[in-house]
Amino acid sequence: MRSLYLDHNATTPLLPEAWEAMRPVAEAAVGNPSSAHHAGRKARQFLEDARDRVAAALGAHPDEVFFTSGATEANNLALFGLTAGASPPAHVLAAPFEHPCVIEPLKQLAARHFDVDWLPVTPRGQVETAAVMARVRDDTRLVCLMLVNHETGALQPVRHVAKKLPKQIPLHCDAAQAIGKIPVHFRDLSVTTLTASAHKFRGPTGVGLLLAKRGATIRPLMFGGHQQKGTRPGTEPVALAVGLAVALEHAVRNLDVTRAHLEALGRRFLAGLGAALGQAFGVNGPEFGSPDALPTTLNVSFPGCRSDVLLVSLDLAGVACSTGSACSSGSLLPSPVLQAMGVPDGVLRSAIRFSLGPTLTDGDIDEAVTRIAKCVREVRQRG
User: Fold this and answer.
1) In 3D, which of 183, 181, 105 has the Cα closest to residue 144?
2) What pLDDT was estimated at residue 331?
3) Could you tell me which residues come within 8 angstroms of residue 331 by beta carbon, excluding any fewer than 6 positions away?
4) Positive/negative CA dihedral, 70, 103, 55, 82
5) Contact 95, 341 (CB under 8 A)
6) Using one digit for the tens of pLDDT, what is the confidence trace for 63-91?
7) Which family does it belong to (predicted)?
8) DSSP secondary structure string, 230-253?
9) How far apart are CA 102 and CA 104, in angstroms?
């Protein structure tokens, strides 16, 4: 039985071109990019070329690009770095459906007596610009709003919020689920900081990026080196940075084709479920195909099936999917994203996230639907 991978929001298969670009760098760039000798200079050249390519792909300046170990570190660096100069009880605004690597740092800020204010969420899983502006105060020191939600695919009005916020208030944006799915242009978004992780867009695991607007004050989390202007010290992973840059360029270059392919797959998936199960399922989040929804993420509830039980059944049937963020996959608690949307308990506890990727085919989708429908029927029969 072949495995069907429908969990691309958790991680994606490494792009062969990224791997091929990384191998010679790992073999040839043996020097430390901070060293002055020829081997160090060669490594530095590879690193700065990768930085230039990332900047060009995302509409940033090269000196605004910082390589990190992933989005978790990048988000922590942005949140703690931007608030380091603020004194509690300074006000922080954030959406309650942010990824755990944003939510948990915000909880740490709350424990340090920052006033963390959670924004209201619509039943479609979105924050409205007016709701953000209504909560802004004189002592607001940070606003956090992700670009695309990791569980529902709901797009957020980041650019509109950025245009209306007073210029002295930083806006942080987690764009991990947006790269390669929608256009992402740092300057056009007008955010202060933006983060992403390479393995979400077919790059290598273990490297991510932080874009920080020129003039933004980001205090470091770590100390002990001068690398990357001291903002993110430590020897840079040259080969990983190259792999990130190649995967990013590929994602941006093929965005339109990929999106069309994924939208067709998503429609086929939902139509197949409808034919197999009738009305015995529901989609959580924005309506599929609407301008504020990504076609790659399908959060589906199957009333009468506990999501944890169904997930095990699907895994045994060779269908890889999830109930939410990979960073909280071990949790038995209901999805905080769906809770924030006001999803009823029975629907909430039967939700499964299917996230699609560009390597899937029509045949993969048809086979996945067949297996999913069979598992749903079996779980319902068992009660």
Assistant:
1) 105
2) 53
3) none
4) negative
5) no
6) 999 999 999 999 999 999 999 999 999 99
7) Belongs to the class-V pyridoxal-phosphate-dependent aminotransferase family. NifS/IscS subfamily.
8) GTS-S---HHHHHHHHHHHHHHHH
9) 6
350-363 per-residue burial string, b: 16 or more CB within 10 A, e: under 16: bbbbbbbbbebeee
| Average pLDDT over all residues of the chain | 95
* Alpha helices per DSSP H over 145-254: 158-164, 186-189, 238-253
Place of tokens 């242009």: 185
SS3 113: coil
- What is the reported pTM? 0.95
CATH architecture assigned to 16-250: 3-Layer(aba) Sandwich (3.40)
DSSP state of 82: H
Residues noted as catalytic: 327
Q: Which CATH class name applies to 4-12+255-382?
A: alpha beta
Quote the radius of gyration of the chain (alpha carbons, Å): 21
The domain spans of the chain are 4-12+255-382, 16-250
